[in-house]
């Protein structure tokens, strides 16, 4: 059993995944390092998420745009249901805002489709200190390879295709050291001190979905380092095969990557040329494959990203 000195609150953003959320909440109670609180932000799920939470006694009230509090099996539950789907980025921004008004020592941030092993939180806490106020778990298992991104290149304008800007990648399951330092992360299990969240502020809700976590990783490194902990295992429940149809998520990924480079590029070439190279590459690929209907969306993604026109531009499934 870990010596429990720090009060930790988990933070979950959920949308339309009642069963996975139920499994996650049950698993969190099994953590060998006991949680003191759980924040749940529901992005207006159209399924029976509210009914499940009420029937299990996890929450006692479900009113849109109202923060309710309850005690469930000794854990303080904070529940907020948005009146509309504001995307994962908006959901995390809301959850971080709730956390700012609370007084826990650390916050464990995650989506609703992860499944942490019982010693995951304790292993993260072992390496959380003044030098690294953010620790991220390893999501690698026999179904998924999780890469620790030790370098995120914001200087080379030619690293425009896909995730080529993510450099010095290490397979998390093969890392032998207790930890390595990384420059990128996802909102799938990172542990933050309250102090670093207060300094970095809220995630940028304007991304709507995708890149909000990369943006936040970049911002926290102004104040602290980020450690990747291979012994802290957290499993992904939903794994994309990368073969899905072109659609709304590609639009947001493209727009947000362009916005991120334009905002944080270390030189003029990355801020101006890398977005241009990226969109030219994507348009050329669309033309060669005869997918001409994609071009108008790519052009919109480029213009919106360069001009900082963020937020919800197309509804989920809208392309």
Q: Would you write up a description of this structure?
A:
The chain is of the alpha/beta class and 319 residues long. 33% of the residues lie in helices and 22% in strands. The chain has helices spanning 18-28, 49-55, 87-100, 120-126, 194-200, 212-220, 248-264, 268-288, 295-307, and strands spanning 8-14, 37-42, 67-72, 75-81, 106-111, 114-116, 134-138, 147-152, 166-171, 180-182, 191-193, 226-236. The strands form 2 sheets. Strands 1, 2, 3, 4, 5, 6, 7, 10, 11 and 12 form a 10-stranded mixed sheet that branches. A two-stranded antiparallel sheet has the order 8-9. A hairpin with a 2-residue loop joins strand 3 and strand 4 (75-81). The protein is globular and about 55 Å long.
Q: Quick one: biggest sheet?
A: 10 strands, mixed
- N-to-C series of helices and strands: EHEHEEHEEHEEEEEHHEHHH
Compute the average pLDDT: 95
How much β-strand is present in the residues?
A: 15-25%
Radius of gyration, rounded?
A: 20 Å
The beta-strand count equals 12
Distance between the termini: 49 Å
Shape: globular
Counted by DSSP, the helix tally is 9
Low-confidence runs (pLDDT<50, min 5 residues)?
A: none
Class inferred from helices and paired strands? alpha/beta
Helix content: 25-40%
